[in-house]
Amino acid sequence: MVQDSHIKNGKISLGGGGGGYKLSNRPNIPTSVLQSILSSIQRGQLDVVFQPIVHHRKEHFFAYESLSRPQCEGKGIPPDVWFQAAYEYQLSTEIDRLALSMSLKKRLELPAKWQSKPIFVNVSPHSLTERAYLEELEHLLQESHCPPSQLIFEMIEYIAYDPKTLFEMLRPLRSLGVRIALDDMGVGHANLSTLVILEPDFIKIDRSLIQNIHLSDRKQRLLSHLLCYMDSGEQVIAEGVEKIEEVQITQQLGIDLSQGYYWARPMAVEDWAMMTPSTFLNTSYSIGGQVN
Ligand SMILES: [Ca+2]
To answer: Which residues form the EAL domain (predicted)?
Structure first.
């Protein structure tokens, strides 16, 4: 927990912590960020939005990712900054529990057509090694009528972790049917050895490798090799697609899934209620299939 001695001149000095995991080099965090984290935990409130993941080959809505939208002093704050600050103050398990709980709760407000699709939720690998988190997970799934097979945890990349330990800790979770995705593949800690050890059900290719992929033979070669490793194009998600050329090239390579502004921005649940499948899919991409 944070002590007063950690706070000097409106900044928080980082000490150790993190449950034996490596910490990133963040010398100071504004006290307002910590206050925002503590306030969210105390109120049990965190805004979440959903962004669709599209099966572009079959032209249908495949799943959606739940994205937290924390606020600090009345303004949005980058989620990675906020979550990493929580981790560094050993509050990430509480925050991850809150994010999961809010995601599953908001999912219930989606129209049935959307609600029946799988939900991707970001989580710190550290939380998944906490027994308390795993024990509560089953309860949360039951309470929100979410079948375990509909939940996919995305391992965030900005915190280093031991994939062997995590793989063992995940066994009971996976035996329930919960699936695992490796987020931000290609950057940070989502490296190749993690891919080999963790055996994820999905990999999400970082946007930096997708941006302008139609202009880069090297990016295309790399994606081909990753796809070859994963066996199926339905296990690979191209993140951050913004142009039709990026979607077309990933499809030509054999990757079936994509997510990004090309299809839709993350939307509050109220906005989803007004959407039909055909209104969110970018009509310029249509290759004749039926959106469903
Ligand atoms: Ca993610």
So the answer is: 30-280
Task: Give the percent of the chain with pLDDT over 70.
Answer: 83
Domains of the chain, CATH where assigned: 4-285 (3.20.20.450)
Q: Where are the alpha helices (DSSP H) in 44-154?
A: 79-88, 92-107, 112-115, 125-128, 131-143
Residue 183 alpha carbon to ligand 1 centre in Å: 5
Q: What pLDDT, on the 0 to 100 scale, is given for residue 158?
A: 65
Are 89 and 34 in contact, with CB atoms under 8 Å apart?
yes
Cα(66) to ligand 1 centroid in Å equals 8
Highest mean pLDDT among 12-16, 126-130, 147-151 belongs to 147-151
CB 48 within 8 A of CB 106: yes
What spacing in Å lies between the alpha carbon of 154 and ligand 1's midpoint?
6
Average pLDDT over residues 189-202: 85
Task: Name residues with Cβ closer than 5 Å to ligand 1, which is an ion.
Answer: 122, 154, 183
pTM of the model: 0.86
Across the chain, mean pLDDT equals 84
* CA–centroid distance, residue 205 to ligand 1 (Å): 10
* Ligand 1 center from residue 7 Cα (angstroms): 31
CB 67 within 8 Å of CB 266? yes
CA–CA separation, 66 vs 37, rounded Å? Answer: 18
For residue 135, the model assigns a pLDDT of 82
